[in-house]
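job 3f2a | input accepted
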Amino acid sequence: MNCLEPLTALRAALQHRQCSARELVQAHIARIQQHDGPLNAIVVQRFDEARHEADASDARLARGEGGALEGVPVSIKEAINVIGMPTSVGDTAYAGFVSQHDAPSVRRLRAAGAIVIGKTNVPPEMADWQAANPLYGRTHNPWDLARTCGGSSGGGAAVAAGFAALDLGSDIGGSVRVPAAFCGVYGLRGSETLIPRSGQYPIPPTPNWGAVLGAQGPLARSAEDIELAARVMCGPDAGEDVAWRLELPAARCNSLRGARIAVLAPPAYAPVHEDLAAAQEQVIAALGQAGAKVAVAQPEGFGDWREHYRLYLRLLHYMMSPRWTPEDRAARVVELKRADDEFAPAQVEGLLCTGQQLFLWHLERERVRAAWRGFFKDWDAMLTPAFHTPAFEHVAFSGPALGAAAAHQRVVVAGHSVPYSRGLFFPHVSTLAGQPALACPVGVSKAGLPLSMQLIGPYLEDFTLTRLASLLAREIGGFVPPPGFAT
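job 3f2a | predicted structure (487 res):
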């Protein structure tokens, strides 16, 4: 039994009685027990419960019943609530917290027959592109154990290594797309309201309509898997579900021929690794050869993206800091004011904002959303890198990575020294307005690391992205197992 098959293939094997759910779950458990020691991807195990639930799935399958994900093993980001499992976010202060409910997204996965096999790692406060914390330790990249698997959703490593057919993550600064990119799998940051956002740290079980930018989404080994999972989880949050029904538009494109793909020209302050730039050119060439219209373009009025990026950073830092003490907030402000970064003042503004400023920022965000709506009248998707580098070597911080500890950290990208936090630029392009974005594997770097692009699409037209990614995979290939985990 090949645990590296796409979710859709595993589901088909169950439906055609080529294997049982018990056998499939046990194969994944055995693979985790054999290979996860040095990787540390499944940091909370749920093996006994998974076996019991697999038996129940087999009974349903024998009756010709079962949901869209019946019997398929999945993992969940540690920060997202699952009944009877910890939600500590890698923070010792929450080490004893055990959830008494499933997040709506988890509840929908399980209602469709998915079997939660364990939880995957996170950084403290979900504030880094690494997955390391004092409770669970560090998750490594299956392509190179000396490098990060990405974060804050560390589940890309579990999916790439064949420990789970799907991982559920969340994304406000690339936290689904970056681990997908670093581990060579697909990752969807869905349209902001596509999948309920409640039921994860720091959002309580009930919806919080003041929360913006964040979204939940799946990581998987094919674009088809992503679409299936999104269909299962999408829909209104608690309260609206008594009346609202979500009817998502069909994909705009059934062929690459005639598809309209805009390409973002990165501003000088957001350089891109040479291998990623070369991969992007290869993707553009493949799209063109398949008959797509491809050209550099962006929404009207965005200019060099500086004001767009500043608005995002203001709202991001407001959203990331509601539980901070005044002392922590003040210390963070001091460090940011000393940082050599032209965008640090925007981060400070987010930490110190008034209600009036927040209201005005929301008004400005709506103008940005309107600009994207106008843009997607002429284009079907935008192509950009998912992150500005391939997976980088582990970095040790003495606190939350995107806070004071990293305010002075710099990295070299294509010969340019930029702040560590500049990695937010490409994820932010879609996040500010809540657009869907799908990270797609597009090859391997000269150093043998996965390369990834992201497709950004019209709001609530997520399936245009999954269709385009599926079509693109036929031209350039899709998921490739990490060499050390290929069997």
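job 3f2a | DSSP finds 14 helices and 17 strands in the chain.
job 3f2a | closed
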